[in-house]
Amino acid sequence: MTVQAAVREALLGAVPSLRAFAISLSGNVDRADDLVQETLLRAMANIDSFHPGSNMPAWLFTILHNLFRSEYRKRRREVEDVDGSYVESLKSQPEQHSRMDFKEFRIALGMLPPDQREALLLVAASGFSYEEVAAICDCAVGTIKSRVFRARARLAALLSVDNADEFGPDHTTRAILSAGGRNATR
Amino acid sequence: MMQIEARSRKPHVRLNRHVQSKLGDALQAMYETIVQEGVPDRFAKLLAQIDGNRDVMAGPEPTTKLDGSEEPRNKSPAPVATQQADRPLAKTDSLPKATHKGPS
Predict the structure, then answer these.
(1) Is the Cβ–Cβ distance between A21 and B27 less than 8 Å?
(2) B45 by DSSP, 3-state: which?
(3) Residues B2/A161, Cβ–Cβ less than 8 Å
(4) Residue B49 has what pLDDT?
(5) Which of B33, B64, B94 is nearest residue A52 as measured by Cβ atoms?
(6) Do A7 and B95 count as a contact with CB atoms less than 8 A apart?
(7) pLDDT at A104
(8) What average pLDDT does the segment A46-54 reach?
(9) How would you class A110 by CB atoms within 10 Å of its CB: exposed for 0-12, middle for 13-18, buried for 19 or more?
(10) Which residues in chain B have Cβ-Cβ distances shorter than 8 Å to A154?
(11) How would you class A55 by CB atoms within 10 Å of its CB: exposed for 0-12, middle for 13-18, buried for 19 or more?
């Protein structure tokens, strides 16, 4: 295999996990896929700055994190209802059946401030360590731990999780949808 | 039964390990539904274009995983059955070195 083929393999291999993060973070498949595409483009353009043998997933996620942050700020400057649009996207998108099972969960996720949502996803779903997440998000480990804790606490409260409850497709979403899905204050 | 309350008044939900692990399970299961979608065509095509060759990914639904493809990705000298114009391999088994960069 050529070196270029190895790069392409590595980047393609990272796509599913990048998409999982981007879709869960942004709440919008199209926007997420655009971000992933941009991430791949940037990665290829900057491949010389990637240190061979180092953590390529973390490097790619750092690029994606930066892109998401820039795009988020830009959209907020344009006075778009960025936070509310997360839930609106979920409501309006044609859902694949499997994703419907998590609709309520994903709506609750969308109610978190983006920094908390991102930290939680990276730690609890993407499988990075706190140190790796701190590097990806360019902040202190303590900050990440705090965000993850608060994200978990808020999710648990939103979903009224106690020891007996399960997440599943048989829960009503009416309460969430009527609440309008507006993001709480940071 | 669970409901979501936009302004939750349940400060006493305990964030114990059980709750934490349930949240983690749900997050990971949610991820899994997306991961199972594999690699949409647009990404395979994108990378093929950037690479500067006219490689066409074989198969209707490319679902390339990092190390789950059919062909071994190792130091084997056996020719890999791809359609791309291979260049001689400078380094055999590692991710890209900084010295080599194709046309962009």
Answers:
(1) no
(2) helix
(3) yes
(4) 81
(5) B94
(6) yes
(7) 83
(8) 88
(9) buried
(10) 8
(11) middle
